[in-house]
């Protein structure tokens, strides 16, 4: 903190600009945001308070003093950590688990339940009961309290060394003899050296384990620097109907979320105007047809071996870990169960029961609107959905039935191809002396408001045969969910709309649902990445651009009404994109509204993770990238003494390089000034990894 003689309130002040560049590069935050020196002629902010971790600051500000023309600046720091309530989880104990004995017991069971039952629900119940009885014998369920793990690199040998060190210190303090102090210091130095070596070895092994996993690398590094993991507990939820009513009990919160999530679709559908617009007017009948084919046991075995054992467990308490271990013994029987479901066009009731986790997005944590539901089904159900997905997706790709302007959840398509297609059109129009207008649409709870009957109709138009449609109808009917919050599971409620988020089939079914959205656009070009939709237009003058955008906005609203989806007019934005000279030379302005609600015009917005500005300078995006890069480079610096050069390089590739690489083809033509800012961080990372000094 101190007086830097650079006015932080004046964006044109050159020293201020240099300071801000330094703050950005070294991930520093300046806390003071009001004048610190006021005279009759000027009011400036020249006294600053800098911190490396803004999250530790509770409050900061300025206090006027009569003894100086400078104000006192101050900051209040957090000194305590709130203690969470005890957390209990139910999990399977593998303490005495023997894989070979488990497989031997599985091989002794009389499994062919499909020969005994023609009802898939009864067949599943019989198979599940037999399987769980064996699993319970080898890996019983236990309710345990989640405790903070001890330091993982402190083994029994080091614990004994720590004990010896402390005992030698007590002896030295008691006797005061030089020899005793020498013995203590030798033991202390040896112990410290062994602790550092063990810690280095532990983190090197962890980083090698997460070599190609940026999420795991971040988690390991945060653990290394002592940064606490994000608190996922939901401590309170305010009731919208009564702001003074706040839920704090976990059981009440879980039931509140369950009711809220299950009613989203119905509430939004009730708000859609009844204009009797037929959704089939936008559809075109496919010339091909699809029916399920029998699932081969080898397909099931292949997927069982690829199961992610870190995934959450469904309501049946059969984890992916257990299924993966049991794969050689159960794959044939599961294939028979899946084929029985296809044969009778019935999706088992229990496979439609989801455990839902509220995941915080952003905003106020006590507002349930700021959470999205992530569903976890039974492991066997997820496996079956993947097999169904593979067949449906292969059919859609073979006959080119997915809209070419849909870039989400498709092979050879990504956010990069979506943005490249969009910006190429803009640059082409700019080169022709035109301006671009773009609508960034935001749909309210799009996944949760999918109408099942409309979706079945769209599946039919895509050539899905009647028999397979009956299977999908069974898949949508009688779906239930229970919400899991802070270790408590809510009651069960029925879900009558939407496609579950977090499941395999959900994204593909949503793509099918909005597949025909582009048919409602007559003047512009619509592009979709799942529910992230933008529509781009071009013209020579504002009046023509406004006419095109207004017309297509009305057409889009009709399509949304027909499909019982809702446009979020608060978050829907529009922007004019073009050269600075061309836009400034035009007379007038562009304004848009829908149903007498003015839409927000912006000069920059984030689209698929890239911040786009109206003149395509990419300056704001580069600033965002630098902010993220600085965090990664700071982690490298803080861990350079613990990790070897090769480990630092792996860390760089996992948490720094992706920010340089992400969509770099889009903003490759940035100015030399912006490129230099990136290069400085690249150089700093290289020096940290190699140990080179600043003369190189």
Automatic annotation (TrEMBL):
InterPro entries: DNA/RNA_pol_sf, RT_dom. Signal peptide: none annotated. PROSITE patterns: RT_POL. It holds the Pfam family RVT_1. Coiled coil: none annotated. This is Uncharacterized protein. It comes from Paramuricea clavata (Red gorgonian).
């Amino acid at each position: 903190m101190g007086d830097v003689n650079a006015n932080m309130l004046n964006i044109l002040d050159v020293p201020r600009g240099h300071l801000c560049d330094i703050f950005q590069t070294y991930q520093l935050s300046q806390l003071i945001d009001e004048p610190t020196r006021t005279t009759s002629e000027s009011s400036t902010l020249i006294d600053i308070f800098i911190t490396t971790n803004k999250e530790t600051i509770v409050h900061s500000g300025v206090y006027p003093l009569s003894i100086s023309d400078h104000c006192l600046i101050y900051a209040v720091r957090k000194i305590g950590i709130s203690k969470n309530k005890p957390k209990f989880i139910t999990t399977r104990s593998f303490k005495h688990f023997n894989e070979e004995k488990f497989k031997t017991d599985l091989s002794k069971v009389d499994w062919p339940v499909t020969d005994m039952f023609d009802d898939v629900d009864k067949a599943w119940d019989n198979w599940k009961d037999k399987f769980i009885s064996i699993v319970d014998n080898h890996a019983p369920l236990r309710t345990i309290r989640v405790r903070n793990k001890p330091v993982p690199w402190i083994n029994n040998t080091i614990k004994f060394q720590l004990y010896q060190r402390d005992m030698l210190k007590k002896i030295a303090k008691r006797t005061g003899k030089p020899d005793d102090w020498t013995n203590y210091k030798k033991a202390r130095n040896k112990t410290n050296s062994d602790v550092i070596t063990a810690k280095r070895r532990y983190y090197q092994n962890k980083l090698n384990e997460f070599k190609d996993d940026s999420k795991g690398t971040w988690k390991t590094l945060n653990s290394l620097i002592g940064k606490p993991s994000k608190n996922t507990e939901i401590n309170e939820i305010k009731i919208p109907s009564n702001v003074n009513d706040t839920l704090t009990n976990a059981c009440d919160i879980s039931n509140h979320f369950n009711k809220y999530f299950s009613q989203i679709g119905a509430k939004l559908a009730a708000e859609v105007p009844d204009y009797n617009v037929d959704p089939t007017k936008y559809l075109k009948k496919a010339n091909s047809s699809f029916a399920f084919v029998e699932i081969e046991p080898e397909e099931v075995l292949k997927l069982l071996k690829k199961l992610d054992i870190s995934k959450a467990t469904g309501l049946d308490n059969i984890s992916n870990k257990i299924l993966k271990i049991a794969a050689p013994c159960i794959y044939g029987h599961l294939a028979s169960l899946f084929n029985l479901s296809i044969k009778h066009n019935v999706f088992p009731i229990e496979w439609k029961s989801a455990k839902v986790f509220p995941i915080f997005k952003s905003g106020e944590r006590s507002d349930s609107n700021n959470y999205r539901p992530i569903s976890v089904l039974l492991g066997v159900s997820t496996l079956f959905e993947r097999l169904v997905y593979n067949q449906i997706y292969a059919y859609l790709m073979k006959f080119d039935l997915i809209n070419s302007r849909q870039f989400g959840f498709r092979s050879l398509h990504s956010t990069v191809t979506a943005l490249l297609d969009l910006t190429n059109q803009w640059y082409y129009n700019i080169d022709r002396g035109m301006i671009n207008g773009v609508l960034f649409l935001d749909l309210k709870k799009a996944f949760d408001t999918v109408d099942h009957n409309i979706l079945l109709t769209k599946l039919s138009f895509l050539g899905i045969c009647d028999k397979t449609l009956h299977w999908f109808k069974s898949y949508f009917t009688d779906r239930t969910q229970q919400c899991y919050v802070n270790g408590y599971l809510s009651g069960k409620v029925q879900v009558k709309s939407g496609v579950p988020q977090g499941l395999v089939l959900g994204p593909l079914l949503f793509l099918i649902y909005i597949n025909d959205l582009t048919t409602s656009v007559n003047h512009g070009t619509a592009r979709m990445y799942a529910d992230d939709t933008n529509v781009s237009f071009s013209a020579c003058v504002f009046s023509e651009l406004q006419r095109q955008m207004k017309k297509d906005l009305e057409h889009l609203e009709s399509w949304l009404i027909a499909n019982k989806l809702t446009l979020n007019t608060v978050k829907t934005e529009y922007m004019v994109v073009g050269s600075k000279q061309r836009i400034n030379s035009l007379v007038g302005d562009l304004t848009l509204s829908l149903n007498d609600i003015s839409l927000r015009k912006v000069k920059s917005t984030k689209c698929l993770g890239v911040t786009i500005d109206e003149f395509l300078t990419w300056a704001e995006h580069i600033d965002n990238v630098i902010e993220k890069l600085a965090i990664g480079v700071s982690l490298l610096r803080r861990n350079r003494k613990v990790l070897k050069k090769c480990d630092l390089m792996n860390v760089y590739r996992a948490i720094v390089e992706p920010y340089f690489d992400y969509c770099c083809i889009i903003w490759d033509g940035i100015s030399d000034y912006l490129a230099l800012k990136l290069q400085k961080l690249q150089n700093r990372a290289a020096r940290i990894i190699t140990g080179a000094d600043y003369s190189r």
